[in-house]
Amino acid sequence: MAIIEYAKLKETDILTVSEIHKQELKIGVLSLFGSPFLSQMYLSLLNRGNWGFVAKVKGETVGYIFATQTEISLLKCLSIQSIIYFLLNSVSNPLRFVSFLIAFKESYLNNSNDKIIPIKTMIELSHFAVKEDWKSKRIGENLIEILEAKAKERGFSSVFTRTHNERLSSYYIKSRKAKVLKRLPTASYVSLVLKWKI
Predict the structure, then answer these.
(1) CATH number where 148 lies
(2) pLDDT at position 118
(3) Rounded-to-integer distance, Cα 48 and Cα 71, Å
(4) pLDDT beneath 50, residues of the chain
(5) Are 124 and 51 in contact (CB under 8 A)?
């Protein structure tokens, strides 16, 4: 059995993390913008004091988890290349484009007071993925436990996340006693906002 090592996510991990994100989270709207956008997003998040962890086997990153306590503007992560990539992907996948429009409206155009954001006692599990070949080996569960321990150490008492993954949301509800705060329907899936105590 391979030895899995867990380490703090560093700037040198960003390219690999971005590729895992693009491969494993392709249903999500951020992947529409391509790897350079994702890399800029993760770099911006790290530079704002956010943090995460990676799981590695023989030096190869096989999974990651990211905690956001300070939000960034995704608009500032855009480049001409990522916009072109987005347009090309949108033409080839109109359902994901409609999902993007719904998510964009929810995140940027709604001035509602019900938007859930990180606060002093609650941290966001914002990004999380494990490579397909490494799923069902407790890597995801271990990454969540490491994130929770670090969050607790930093004074957070709860975690919230958004996910469209039904299996993952069931795990959070069953194993973490998570509560569903909000359901966000898009064109191709329903995303849940969940919160649990640590």
Answers:
(1) 3.40.630.30
(2) 61
(3) 8
(4) 111, 113
(5) no
How many structural domains compose the chain? 1
pTM reported for the whole predicted model: 0.87
By residue range, what is the domain housing residue 79?
4-197
- pLDDT of res. 105: 65
Neighbouring CB atoms inside 10 A of 121's CB total: 10
Contacts of 166 (CB under 8 A, 6+ apart): none
pLDDT for position 95: 74
CB 127 within 8 A of CB 92: no
Give yes or no for a contact between 35 and 103, defined as CB atoms under 8 angstroms apart: no
DSSP the chain: -PPEEEEE--GGGHHHHHHHHHHHTTTSSGGGG-HHHHHHHHHHHHHTT-EEEEEEETTEEEEEEEEESS---GGGG--HHHHHHHHHHHHH-HHHHHHHHHHHIIIII---TT----BTTEEEEEEEEE-GGGTTSSHHHHHHHHHHHHHHHTT--EEEEEE--HHHHHHHHHHS--EEEEEEE-SS-EEEEEEEE-
What integer pLDDT is reported at residue 22 of this predicted model? Answer: 93
Predicted confidence at residue 29, as pLDDT, reads 80
